[in-house]
Amino acid sequence: MPYFTLDASSLQHWLTNHADLASLLGGSPSAWTIREVSDGNLNTVFLVDGPAGSLCCKQALPHVRVAPDWPMPLERALYEARYMRATADAVRPAAPELYFYDDEMFLLVMECLTPHEVLRTALIRDEVQPGFSAVIGQYVARSVHATSWISQPFEHGSKLLADFAGNTALTRITVDLILTDPFRPCSRNPAPEADLLPDVEALQADKPLHRAVGNLQERFLTARQALLHGDLHTGSIMQHKDDVRVIDGEFATMGPIGFDCGLYLGNLALHACGAPHKGNLITAEITAFWNSFTADFRTLLKTGGGDVWALSDDVEREEMLNTFLHSILQDTTGFCGLEMIRRTIGFAQVADYTLCVTPESRTEARRKALKTGRTLILAAPTVHNLEGLLNLLTLR
Amino acid sequence: MPYFTLDASSLQHWLTNHADLASLLGGSPSAWTIREVSDGNLNTVFLVDGPAGSLCCKQALPHVRVAPDWPMPLERALYEARYMRATADAVRPAAPELYFYDDEMFLLVMECLTPHEVLRTALIRDEVQPGFSAVIGQYVARSVHATSWISQPFEHGSKLLADFAGNTALTRITVDLILTDPFRPCSRNPAPEADLLPDVEALQADKPLHRAVGNLQERFLTARQALLHGDLHTGSIMQHKDDVRVIDGEFATMGPIGFDCGLYLGNLALHACGAPHKGNLITAEITAFWNSFTADFRTLLKTGGGDVWALSDDVEREEMLNTFLHSILQDTTGFCGLEMIRRTIGFAQVADYTLCVTPESRTEARRKALKTGRTLILAAPTVHNLEGLLNLLTLR
């Protein structure tokens, strides 16, 4: 079926033509309820409920949903489907199941997550169950194990490079919006609050900072360590009680493992900037993430299986993993800093700042995020353990 | 035309069906002379002379030419064609022109290089014109400029990643023959001379060495800095007087720039191991390579043009290039060491050792190569300039 933009009625029709999916819903199409719940920047999302079950249907639009004059190739849905397939067995049950991908409609049909809510929203509403970040740490470690050169024959990584190298439309967003735009005057950057303008101008004139950002640009594009989610922020995670799921893998690319870690930790830290009284809670989540990530990383990767480190035994590999984790922590620190800055003054900002009740406190929160982000980017090569990162974050 | 293995007669017929190529040769097919000159390990090569001009025709075989029971996918010819097309404009005239690629016959038709000879052969015969390595240094810098993230929009590098990630059959050879086999008992390794056996056994039990090799395995597979030739040894270069040409790009892959540099310098150093009286000549060539490479690298890359370091100006970029060249030198040192070892005890050894007239001197030459290779691999992270590398090589 040639591509067209679905609405509730045409989606119902599409589903009736897909018997497996229709039988998951059960009953007759007239018994189904279809709600549009689009929330992210890029796609339309429908939740479909039937007598026997539910589905989540996500369709790519030919433009940015929140900026219709910004064209966006439909193929991103293909990369999300590929990402889900490449990681599903490793991360289950920490991601929804992909039931079907329609490569003409650029439509993913997935497990419906209800009554889950977006983690960022739950954090803002204080509705999280502490420790949720351990699941995310485990998720990243398991994704890495499924896709890295240390744990898989190099042909596997080569296939992933080939399968995801074409995802340039969304990688271009990362390169521009995270790695470049916030550090230069750019029409995509919203005008900052007047009080924040001097801080923004200082960041955009800070040559040592730009040099450190340049190193992170280089890491992002050259250090092809494993398959990344590529956009692992608190808006890409759904949760209900202790059920935590990662969604929205359309930014997937082979890249530095610390990029996924850094984006996640950056969004946690941003929440604490918006809600300073939650500094200890967020510090505990960052700790839970890192401890869970490193523990699972060591366990899963020490048995090898890949062409990298093939000459070493498990004991030696454990030592080598410690060195590797050290460099991942430094990447994590740098990318965390980038995320804090771009989510504060760049195109796609975060709702966590709505927790600040006065304009003054909001400016103060943003200023803290910018200052911390800059510190992290510059000091990343000097961080040697989690405590070092926590000290730079100054959330406690 | 479905694939079949060409001989002189069927190649003549094939050429008559390609009018552009036939007219380059001139005259009637009966006036053409066709000689098979296969020399490398993998392919058949014919030189065709006609009244008006000459052609070089290289066809992939479905197996390793020198080991017919080792199957080898034909697609490697496609990657060589892609490599030549991706680099031709940048490196001209330091590579032969590709006139035609037949993707069913896996046949490349190229500029014929006569009366050129293989650089390794010319070195062995003392028929080189000193300073030839400056051309190779320039070749590597120009290839990097055409393909790196610093000098090209990231979409260009992504296309190269996609175009070359499938070259797994030949990358498997690199991973096995260069990065792994020499350091473990392996049926592909020829039995060493009895006198050398203790040295080989020591290398294969050397855990700190294996750890350093592991780091180089990781660099090779994860540090996707630019498009590599992938097999840049003195047998992949043709020369006649001051005309120096790089051939045989079928191992092309995105990888660490120091890999191409290291393989080339390793083969120069191996020559000096086989001919110790030429230590100063080889040292001069290594110096010419590195000086030419770094000078052109700085000039070409400092103007940027890529997404990496996009925030920095030319002056800052020049400083950043120095740091980058430092890390390339360390990679170069490590890969140089790997090449010296694998060409001494691995599957594909070098003819330079035939310069040793006695069995004792040959063993001594090989022992020196193994010892130097090991030193380079272990000391690579401590090398800070060319002089440091030359000191480790001890060729002077």
UniProtKB/TrEMBL annotation, chains A, B:
Enzymatic class: transferase
Protein name: S-methyl-5-thioribose kinase
PANTHER family linked: METHYLTHIORIBOSE KINASE
Species of the source: Gluconobacter frateurii NRIC 0228
Keywords: ATP-binding, Kinase, Nucleotide-binding, Transferase
EC nos: 2.7.1.100
Matches recorded under InterPro entries: Aminoglycoside_PTrfase (IPR002575), Kinase-like_dom_sf (IPR011009), Methylthioribose_kinase (IPR009212)
Assembly mode: Homodimer.
Boundaries of every Aminoglycoside phosphotransferase domain copy: 33-265
